[in-house]
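Before we proceed, please read the two lines closing this message. Report back on whether the structure tokens fit the sequence:
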Amino acid sequence: MPNYIGAIDQGTSSTRFIVFDREGGILTCAQQEHRQFFPRPGWVEHDPEEIWQRTQQVVAEALKRSGLRPADLAAVGITNQRETTVAWNRKTGMPVANAIVWQDTRVADDVARMAQQLGQDFFRAKTGLPLSTYFSALKIRWILENVPGVREQAEAGEVLFGNIDTFLVWKLTGGPRHGLHLTDVTNASRTQLMNLETLNWDTDLLQSFNIPAQMLPRICSSSEVYGHIAEGPLAGVAIAGILGDQQAALVGQTCFERGEAKNTYGTGCFLLMNTGDQLVHSRHGLLTTVAYKFGAQPARYALEGSVAIAGALVQWLRDNLGIIKSSTEIEDLARTVDDNGDVYLVPAFSGLFAPHWKESARGVITGLTRYATKAHFARAVLEATAFQTRDVVEAMEQDSGIRLSVLRTDGGMVNNNLLMQFQADILSRPVVRPAIAETTSLGAAYAAGLAVGFFKDTAELRSRWSASQTWTPSMDKARREHLYQSWKKAVARSLDWLE
């Protein structure tokens, strides 16, 4: 019997292939970045063909390093950047345009018009999502309306849509010859076209966004054998798990019980709480989404708070302002001061996501005096991520009626001890970092492994989870609430900056 399970992790800035053993240990890993295109202000694009090439390269590289053969892998799972929208020709396999990335805001005017006509929450009852530039539906419509000939081809069944998971599965299973056109419920729930209760594409939604049903993939569970890889170094290996990246991290953190939550600190910040089989509609600016669906078992749902800018703010400090030369320098610089010097930075570079959902907000820096230094800026950048997380946690507790007892964390920023301690302080809850840091890839591997019997059940997975470090609150209540109220004043000044 094979002793390993693989995971393709296709993210916003890079693609990785990781092979795990039964204990969740990493046997081999390869990673490559892909280019980011910014053709106009607010536009963010990727080249889908470049992503496909990087996927093939990292798989080959990881297997070469380890000497593994396809027969050594029980299955492969896929996790991916969500909402990023690809349309491609069924016969040639070539994209009809660059992928429109989840961060892209080109459909902001469409959002404003539809919100004025219908209300921002018109689609929430069916989809759990407000009108926003974030989701796939309006991105698909933009391609249909702005790339010549594509609408006609889509209506004729010649152009296919998929988020990155769908594009990769189609390519891996044979592409134009016999590629499988499918997605899982977690990715489908981020398109704003799937009904959360039926877990099917919704005819009324398709009509509202004017999207042909024939271009959409088949919706499957998150854990089943979809098909087998057609060729290349993994030829014959089953593809058996698909999860959007944040849901994959929830699974990788083994948050299988109602009320358990994780926060991923990456380019953005994404906090998900498992609400079990209960579909909780948010009244406080959160998203309702599918957490996972394992085979024939009922779907599990989640509340999600999506923060657009977290780690990207550190990159901005590095690349745009030149205050630091590398992202790892920010903690040392921030530690040279005792506090933020009353400086607050609200990173609403393209509006605010949860819980505000304000497309018209823009970034602000408040509280500046001549006392402020670059070290205070560094501290304000880190604290902005923690403040935004508290905004989401408070909304989540109000919606779910569950008080969060502990926050499990993952993502690149969790190695910043100053941030993690401040997060515990501003939340007044323990913050925990898991022993296995690659939770997103691990979640995809878990989903695939459950489908083929590599793992017995979720109880086995839970038994493997352990903490590497816990941060406990040490800030007094008066100080904590003063800082948070000042943050909320800063946020208020960022709102409705655009007319």
About this structure: The chain has a mean pLDDT of 93.
